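Field reference: "sequence" (input) and "structure" (output). Example, Acyl-CoA thioester hydrolase:
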Amino acid sequence: MKTHEIPIRIRYGETDQMGVVYHGNYAQFMEIGRVEWLRNIGVSYKSMEEKGVMLPVVSLHVEFKKPARYDDLILVKTTLVEKPGVKIVFDYKIYAENGEVLTVGNTVLVFVDMKSGRPVRCPDHILKKIEEKMSFD
């Protein structure tokens, strides 16, 4: 399973004066999608950090197609792009309730050893869980 979906209800505080979701919130929606994608395969950020690995974002790309508004129910689809090495890449599509694409995006994150601050390969226990859930062509 390369893709995970999670619904999110837009809260009033996530909108601007025009009633449209503030653009900066889309990075948070993608983070929610990514964290839940990992949790769905049995990996939590908390457990990863307890094992000495963090996963900072090094690249974020967002394209806004249509606005989301207060009280809309959006669906965030998060897809793993490729088998991770030192980096892990996710694509995102955010949909309206009617199935219309509102936003597309991409993030690149790097596995980093918390003690040294240096990039490391994807930990074996995470790679194993990813490989159990999906195949890469």
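The domain at 3-133 is CATH 3.10.129.10 (Thiol Ester Dehydrase; Chain A).
The longest helix spans residues 25-40.
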